[in-house]
Amino acid sequence: MPKRAPVGEIDEIMTKSKLPWGPAPRRLIDAPKTLADEAYQRIHDDIIHGEFAPDDKLQPDALRERYNIGLSPVREALSRVALEGLAVAEGQRGFFVAPATREELLDIADLRIQFSVLSLERSIKFGGDEWENAVVTSYYQLNKLENQAHREPKTFHDEWERRNRAFHEALESGCGSPWLLHFCDILYDQLERYRRRFVVYTDIHPTIAEEHKQIKELALARDLRACDVLKQHFQHAASVIGGMMEKGEGRSAPAPLKKDKAAAERAKPQKPAAKRARARVA
Description:
Layout: H1 9-14, H2 35-48, E1 57-58, H3 60-67, H4 71-83, E2 87-89, E3 95-97, H5 102-126, H6 129-146, H7 153-172, H8 178-198, H9 206-220, H10 225-247, H11 261-266
Antiparallel strand pairs: 1-3, 2-3
Helix pairs in contact: 2-4, 3-4, 5-8, 5-10, 6-7, 6-9, 7-8, 9-10
Keywords: DNA-binding, Transcription, Transcription regulation
Protein name: GntR family transcriptional regulator
Domain HTH gntR-type: 33-100
């Protein structure tokens, strides 16, 4: 077996501007360098954030007008988004936002558990001072938000996603594997798409903050039981999101792009319920 870097050296490896192998984490990637990069980032973010609903047709002309970017960069961006599984290409009919299904949700959640738990286990074993500092700092910011008495619906979900991602990335950041972090990042995006579609963020259950605290404390104590809590944390999230999907309790989506007739027929609109259970998310 290859020799693992000792505690502390992982921090140095993972913070270099040029990693020794694998894809660079997004936090090390510069701003988009081309119009195709910009179009890709904006389409990617709008799908994740729920600006486009599952099965919406992604019409290049409409996207060109929306982003004020030419057709060629938009078409290139659509192909890149499809490669990530956020959109699907249907022959001559064009591109559509990927459907949202319970089966895919469970698949994403299962892989997120496996990759994130492995990352945390390695971070606990090999992460150094920089890893510990990242965990402490990101947890403080997330906990401060989760303890707010008043949660403004228009801004809370975006800020919670940003801080929640930062906390989980910090937990994973000491693993020493750029490839492992890359896959964790992709899976976070996919799960975030489902959360934003089906979860009421202002109703996040207080036990989520308790789990975050427990994971943080166990991880900093170099206690591998943190991995068990993290696994349970994700399982709860998938269970709640799946339940909301089945009950049709997803929040109303913004006005979608124009659909063609086939997409409209296969789309299943979700009616928001009058009352919603408090959400457990991860």
